[in-house]
Amino acid sequence: MYPKIPLTVNGQNREIEADPEMPLLWALRDIMDIKGPKFGCGVAACGACTVLIDGEPVRSCSQPVGDVEGEITTIEGISQGNELHAVQQAWMKHSVPQCGYCQAGQIMAAVALLEEIPNPTDEDISDAMTNLCRCGTYPKIKAAIKDAAQTLGA
Amino acid sequence: MSRLGKCTRRAFLGLGVGAAGGLAVGYYFYQKPYANPLDANKAEGDTPFNPYVMISADNTITIIAPRAEMGQGTHTTLAALVAEELEVPLEQVVVEHGPSSPAYFNAAMFEESAPFPFYDEGVMAEIARGSMKIVAKFLGMNVTGGSSSMTDAFVKMREAGYTARFVLLKAAAEHFGTSEDNLTLADGTITDTTSGKTVTYGELASKAVNISPPTEMKLKKASDWKILGKSQKRVEIKDKVTGGRIFGIDVQLPDMRYGTVRMAPRKGVSLKSYDKTAALAIPGVTDVVEIRTIAGEGLGVVADNTWAAFKGAEVLEIEWDDPLSLQNTDQMWSALENALTQEATFELGGTGSDAEVYTSIPASEEVSAQYRVPFLAHATMEPMNATAQHDGSTIRIWTGTQAPGIVQTVVASHFDMDSADIDVTTTRLGGGFGRRLDADFALYASVIAEATAPHPVKVTWTREEDTQHDTYRPMAIGEFKGQVTPDGTLKTMDMHVASPSIIKSVMPRTFPAISPVGPDNTVLDGAYNQPLDVENQRCQAHVADLQVPVGFWRSVGNSINGFFHESFVDEAAHKAGKDPLEFRLAHMTSEEFLPAREALKRVAEMSGWGTPLPAGKGRGIAHVLSFGTWTAQVVQVDVTDDTVTIEEVWAVADPGIVLDPGMFKDQIMSGINFGLSQALGQEITWADGQVEQANFDSFDAMRMYQAPKITVELLENSPRMGGAGEPGTPPSTPALANAIFAATGKRIRQMPLSNEIDFI
């Protein structure tokens, strides 16, 4: 009934049957059972669903799955085996998360930011980190990004 | 400052939960503990010692932290209470929320609900607090709210750890055939120092549990604490940096269906007719289900994925029957204005002065102001959701709830079942802020699950549905009047607050069988119970039903009255020609207000209060005592080109005892940003019987570029323990409004402040 859609997710080739209009977020969560990207708003306003497509941050709730071109990376795909990504480690070191619901999206946005700007200023961080956090963890997110920048630059 | 004179018996039965007849039940039943809920679920080799501690033969030590983890770090600090006495490091224990059981009642939340100021330790206040504790136990309120988890658990969970350690040591002495004096404990292992031999807790557990528990609790002194009082790593942190499947929305069950709801605009509006043809034509949509419940009416859509359910719900054609008279926000303001002209519904606190003093203030000495705040949504990051499975005789529910006991009661009552047949698994919560004290989302999922039976169904609300079907923070008007004498003394303060009653709204949704008695102190919290010496004080509530469901929103009445009260004190200081800090300190000379004075003095030092600032910048100060924590804040703003930047916030909080300084400071920071978010543009308004805001484009919150630098310090002067999750919120908004006044001379008395001045 639905067309087959080939996808590369976290380095694995997948093929799903879905309405091409279905947002990538729901294809990941409901069809592929990848639960790291979270649903927050459905209109690309909060960033809880942020994934990377070829390294670029994308709000997967507003990205039709049929239009995806490139490799998809979710939070499940950024650590190397048991070793967490430097951004995740910085998040742990600074005790960033509170409720934690937005943090997978925040971390993905931060990973993309540091790929693009290895040593971001406060202004760079404010410009790039537009994801919403209702627990208001922004000061800690900022500190953790700067810490991760140092680790990655070292 | 005595408030006892005005206390009637009706008043001390307390707010909402004065269970009819409940208080009369005998002492014996209250003393009798609930059965240990862990006994029912234990596996081979597991030994439950009490409702909080289970030790397995392989030495896995499980601590039950029966409160909702919604970001406040409660699982970590609750586990620390037990681990401290059990002599095991936090890294070595498994922390679980545990089953829904009345054994985990929260007495502290209801204790503080009694209508007395926190610092009032008079006989009547103590009796009232005690009564509320008994009520909480009878109702089995396994509730997370009121910033009460630590106050509630502080003794009982340390005792749980101590009793387990006590019998383990006795069992070890018997095992080694030596005296307890020769034994040492560390990391879940007991060593016989005479032989060097060791035995684990797990090896001793099945024997130890049969040893008589201690009759006397010899808890450690704070000076001997190894875990408590120090910052700990969150027990669930790894899940939260790896996208862990820990939230209600992540629940995945075999053969699960997906669903969503489209509910009537509010409770009281009914489902008249509908056409489901278009919805059923959406590929993937399999069913449309009628929902008629105590919380609201509407339709559920079932599909084979969430997105299809959303699309189906969107195209449903529904006609509602709306008999409600208040259809728009202007009518609601009028209703509140009208309530202010009527005799007060009740009053709390106050000095009992003759009414005449409030009407005979000389015009030259009068200061008066009217303040307003709108309805607010909670806007948790994780939209409301619940998964339910109905098998005819039992219903299983998986959801992020702050009140699993209320979910059981409400669902059982809908299906005319026994609460024991409703099984609730509490997941982690993607934000709560009070929204998840209601049970509507779990109730609707259960109704839909009856239609999908035997298949479970995960019901997820769209953001629009979530924003438009909240149980809102009430809108309110504060009419404040005072007398400032020529020497600069605030001699008289008359406070009138018009607002809907949260308790009156919540009780019929949650405990329909119990009628609320006594005053709903949440209407006046943050106004009647503040540490201020004023010769004549009166605080009256004018309750009006605005036909809108209202609920508990982080800091509840304090979020409203903190803004009113602390804005007014600032206005009075300016009327007196005094510095707002000095003015406050001059009106806080009572001995019991020492924590407030110290918090204010420290926050003034930290912020450089009184030192000159460049033109266009200003500082504002506020202090609110809420949930037992004395919290002072200074906000500094820059106003350039008529646009406000919130540059920096300094906060000092005094909860008496700090169990985890890192976690506590994080909560104050979070509470500040949650509070300031209101000022930046949050308001829920009504037009034609509908909420006008829908998603984050119309109901947003603070973003990174708006976030101020925040510095928090903690003090421990208070004689009693206070909470962490909410007290950061109330002082933030008045401190901001006061700072804008200091920078610009513009006094803004209505939230959101953004309606009168731009923010970056």
From TrEMBL, chain B:
Pfam family, one: MoCoBD_1
Domain Aldehyde oxidase/xanthine dehydrogenase a/b hammerhead residues, every copy: 242-325
Transmembrane domains' residue ranges: 12-30
Record-given protein name: Aldehyde dehydrogenase
Highest classification ranks of the organism: Bacteria, Pseudomonadati, Pseudomonadota, Alphaproteobacteria, Hyphomicrobiales
Keyword entries, A-Z: Membrane, Transmembrane, Transmembrane helix
UniProt superkingdom: Bacteria
PANTHER family, per the entry: ALDEHYDE DEHYDROGENASE
